[in-house]
Amino acid sequence: MSPSLWKHLATRYFLIGCLLLSSLGTRAAEPDPAGRARTIVLPKNAHGRLHYGAERLATALRKAGYQVTISEQDQPGRKKNQILVGRAADGLLRQAAATGATAPGKEGFSIVSAANNNVLISGADNTGALYGCLELAEQVQSQGKLSDNISLTDQPEMVLRGACIGVQKPYYLPGRTVYEYPYTPEVFPWLYDKALWVKYLDMLADNRMNSLYLWNGHPFASLVRLKDYPYAVEVDDATFKKNEEMYRFLAQEADKRGIWVIQMFYNIIVSKPFAEHHGIKTQDRARPITPLLSDYTRKSIAAFVEKYPNVGLMVALGEAMEGVGQDDIDWFTKTIIPGVHDGLKALGQTELPPIVLRAHDTDAPSVIKAALPLYKNLYTEAKFNGEALTTYTPRGSWAELHRTLSGMNSVHIENVHILANLEPFRYGSADFIQKSVQAMHGIYGANGLHLYPQASYWDWPYTADKTPERLLQVDRDWIWYKQWARYAWKADRPRPAEIEYWGQQLGTLYGTDVAAGKQVLEAYEQAGEIEPKLLRRYGITDGNRQTLTLGMLMTQLINPKRYGLFTLLYESEAPEGEMIIEYAEKEAKGLPHVGETPPQVAAEVVAHGKAAVAAIERAAPAVTRNQAEFARLKNDMYCQDALANFYADKALAALHVLRYKYSRNVADLEAALPLLERSVQHWEKMVSLTKDTYLYANSMQTAQRKIPMRGVDATYITWAEMLPVYQKEVRHLRHNLDSIKQVRLVPVVRKNTVLANAPVTLLTKAGSYSLKAGQAVFADTTAAIAALAPELAGLRGLRLSRSQQRKQGTEVRFTTTRPVQLLVGYFNAKSPRYLPAPQLETDASANDYGQADIKIANAVAVAGQPPVNVHAYSFKAGTHTLNLGRGAVLLLGFVDARQPVPTYNAGLNSGGAQAKEVDWLFE
Fold first, then answer.
1. Could you say which residues form the signal peptide (predicted)?
2. Cβ atoms of residues 704 and 682 within 8 Å
3. Which of 569, 656, 682, 909 is 20 to 30 Å from 215 by CA-CA measure?
4. What distance in Å separates the CA atoms of residue 412 and residue 381, rounded to the nearest whole number?
5. How far apart (Å, rounded) are the C-alpha atoms in residues 324 and 164?
6. Is beta strand 109-114 parallel, antiparallel or unpaired with respect to 151-154?
7. In what order do the strands lie in the sheet with 761-762?
8. How far apart, in whole angstroms, are the C-alpha atoms of residue 655 and residue 601?
9. How far is CA 717 from CA 80, 233, 456, 531, in A?
């Protein structure tokens, strides 16, 4: 062989050998298919929750490259590479207990590695085993593989952890009123979207939530048909069948995920066909309980329980019933609970579904005390911060109510409700939310969470974002659900580790490193302080009649009592501190200040806004994924920064105006003007930031919404609509300031409006009297008028029995040929002796006649009685019956509807003294 040929062959064989070695090395490095095979083993006839958990775990394993099968067997056997799933009490897990399979308390689980490369997931119950599967699936997803040595035990702290969906709309349906929304595809197309339900239920399961609340005024007439009241059904036959199928699907899918569906309803509401058949109203807060109403409701509940045994009930005794009293106790114990028992008896079931008593507008402790001997599976629910998010340091009488309910023999649930001060902007402050859940435990003693959507509750399932295709709340607000659920599971997690956790979550979402993710969290947490602080120091109410993000009028800041100030907001749902009017009065009198003050909050929210913008800007260059959503989040930070600056300047302007109230020094008004002008400049920025990004600020678009402006027929729902209002305030102040300078501080004289009696035909037997000093206001007492606002002089009041008003309430029937207003005088005192003034926080019908606002405050002084505020009830031509609740009240006469009733504070007390206000500067 020649040397050249030899060299050629040697080179050739060397290359072949290298390729063979390379091939062998590659095969050696490849995973062994047998090592990547796993069998998930369930007990024979396993519960649906175990199958759901196993499927979720199998999906995660397959994505990580494992070959997975699922089987059922009674014994673990000696096989390798198994994942054994079940309850600790199941034979399958008991036989494996020698390897360490244990489980903690209710809904708890343990995950432990065992011999033969096996893993044991042991649940205290089926839900616990399900949660163990989800936990292991998440670990596989984050690590890309099964850990070699697992030892984990966990269980939830809160007993019920749930979210709610409102089966309601931003507007009233034709011919109906608040909360009256039949279940139909036309009104609620999303209700019949099974894919959307699966998506939402999966989200709840991922967040370890075990309850889903559906809110509706009277759902029964859409879901059950009663033998004794067949005419009560308010949907057609085809829709009724769809509703049955949908509801069963929902209950079954929820049960697979360990979720109780809990149907909420109001009392006393009846269906529209039922009401029309019997010639009654669908709801009437002042009406008494009748055998007809009780029988219909009891049978509706019984039929519902029998038909949907996996569904619980949530009962709102207040709002559509007359507040606190024996009626609430009787209705709960003699109608609702018997109805549930009737349904269980017909079903042949002994397991009691949960009944949740909503503590809103009722004496919940008394109701629970009476009900516990009759029904054991009871829960109570009350709002955490009213219908907003304001503080994690609740206190006062509201905290005491929560502690009382928590101390009874039922689980108390905290309701994070409506969030009227947050919408529509994104919220994700892990710090604020964690501290809130800690307060639920530590201050309130509660052990359950009931979470509302973060925004757009009335517009479910959509957000308010203006996008080519509507965004879903379940997608946009993922962090809202995840944060509350995480801390409901375990509240006391070390803060540094939480910053790291959320930094990773946000970094993954936006394709950044953890450091940039932490900057996004910083932006969320800085912005997350703004709206809570603004509402708790400047707001009128914790209720959804105020949309904080649409701003406030100057008159609302300087004279909040005129707008029905809800003092619980300051007394219980805020840290100790001062309102704007309190701060101004102390300044004028040289008194020391206490706690959180308005100027302090003005400075703090401006700093928060600046910090939020800076943090989101630092994160922005690193974003590589979900860039459109990040841009929307970034815009939200700019919106909240502008909002903070608007409120800060306007609040400081209000303090200067109130200083003028006491000093009458024009220099104080001169100092207010540039601050007010600057607040409008900030509002112009709000308009610019929102005009192409948001459809609306508030999802409730009815007459219930009052602040800053009355929201009727979806008006005043955008920032652009509010801009002319705020510009007008500046013009009024500038004009009035010029006028004051010209007349050299001559006091402004109010031109009195003369209110004339309107002719009506009274169908109620009652005496009458002319409104003037010395006239007795009741038929059975000598209490007489000491002083009254001049506009009221000469009106014909109705003289009724105070005793009858207190025992039976007040009914007025009349006929009119023209639109009129009835002026009603409410005594300004909290006492069972007096009828409470209309209050939208507790009574959704409190503005059905336009009566929610005070027209003339402190308008009538009656000797020995509290001052009287005047409200106006509007009626069209026709015959009307007005039912008012129990308690003394004055009917001051009818006036023409076209006659404007002035809005101001007459300032009269029982001695007839008159106060000074400066609202006129802006009107």
1. 1-28
2. no
3. 569
4. 6
5. 25
6. antiparallel
7. 761-762, 810-816, 878-884
8. 13
9. 63, 35, 12, 18
Q: Has residue 912 got a pLDDT over 50?
A: no
Residue located via tokens 């930031």: 689
Structure tokens at 708: 């800053």
- In terms of Cβ atoms closer than 10 Å to its own Cβ (0-12, 13-18, 19+), residue 538 is buried
Alpha carbons 50 and 72: distance in angstroms, whole number: 11
Number of H helices, E strands in the chain: 27, 25
The pLDDT value recorded for residue 753 is 75
CA–CA gap between residue 426 and residue 421 (Å, rounded): 12
Mean pLDDT of the chain: 91
Least confident range from 58-62, 157-161, 400-404, 882-886: namely 882-886
Distance CA 775, CA 781 (A): 11
Q: Which residue has the tokens 């984050």?
A: 142
Q: Which two tokens stand for residue 800?
A: 């009724």
CB 871 within 8 Å of CB 348: no
Distance from chain centroid for Cα 602? 26
- Distance in angstroms (rounded) separating the CA atoms of residues 675 and 681: 10
Contacts of 822 (CB under 8 A, 6+ apart): 812, 872, 873, 875, 882, 891, 893, 894
42 neighbors 50 (Cβ within 8 angstroms): yes
∠ CA 906-910-912, nearest 5°, is 50
pLDDT band at 709 (very low <50, low <70, confident <90, very high): very high
- In this predicted structure, what is the pLDDT of residue 752? 65
Residue 356 main-chain phi, psi, to 5 deg: -105, 120
461: pLDDT strictly greater than 50? yes
- CA-based end-to-end distance of the chain: 115
Q: Is the separation of the CB atoms in 448 and 159 below 8 Å?
A: yes
What single DSSP character describes residue 542? Answer: S
In terms of Cα–Cα distance, which of 699, 121, 674, 176 is closest to 422?
699
Query: What DSSP string describes 487-501?
Result: HHH-----HHHHHHH
Interval 90-148: pLDDT, tens: 888 887 765 455 668 999 999 999 989 999 999 999 999 999 999 999 999 999 999 98
Predicted confidence (pLDDT) at residue 75 exceeds the cutoff of 80:
yes
Weakest mean pLDDT among 2-6, 459-463, 639-643:
2-6
Does the CA dihedral 826-885-711-570 come out positive or negative? positive
In the block, residue with structure tokens 């059950």 = 224
Strands 260-266 and 767-770, how do they pair? unpaired
Residue type at 726 in one-letter notation = Y
Paired tokens of 712: 């009727």
Residue holding tokens 């609340």?
213
888 in the Ramachandran plot: left (φ > 0), alpha (ψ -120 to 50) or beta? beta
Token couple for 807: 């025992």
**Which position has the token pair 């608007």?**
646
| Percent with pLDDT over 90 in the chain | 79
Residue written as token pair 């059922």: 72
Give the confidence band of 749 by pLDDT, cuts at 50, 70, 90: very low
Q: Positive or negative, the Cα torsion across 817, 824, 787, 775?
A: positive
Nearest Cα neighbor of 224 from 176, 314, 332, 296 is: 296
User: Which one, of 814, 817, 792, lies nearest residue 892 by Cα?
Assistant: 792
Contact 707, 716 (CB under 8 A): no
Total-model pTM: 0.88
CA–CA distance, 26 with 83 (Å, rounded to integer) = 30
**Element containing residue 68 per DSSP (H, E):** strand 67-72
462 to 459, 470, 473: CA distances (angstroms): 6, 6, 5
